[in-house]
Amino acid sequence: MEDFKGYLITFEGIDGSGKSVQAQRLYNNLKKQGLDPLLIREPGGTEVSEKIRDILLLSERGSVSPVTELMLYEAARAELVSRIIFPALKDGRVVISDRFTDSTVAYQGFGRGLDIDLIEQINFFVCRQIKPHLTIILDITLEESLRRRNSISKKEDRIEKETSDFFSAVITGYKSIADSDTNRAVLFDGSLPVDKLEQMIFERVKQTISL
Ligand code: TMP
Question: What are the residue ranges of helices labelled H in the chain?
Answer without folding.
Answer: 19-32, 47-58, 66-80, 86-90, 101-103, 116-127, 142-151, 164-180, 194-209
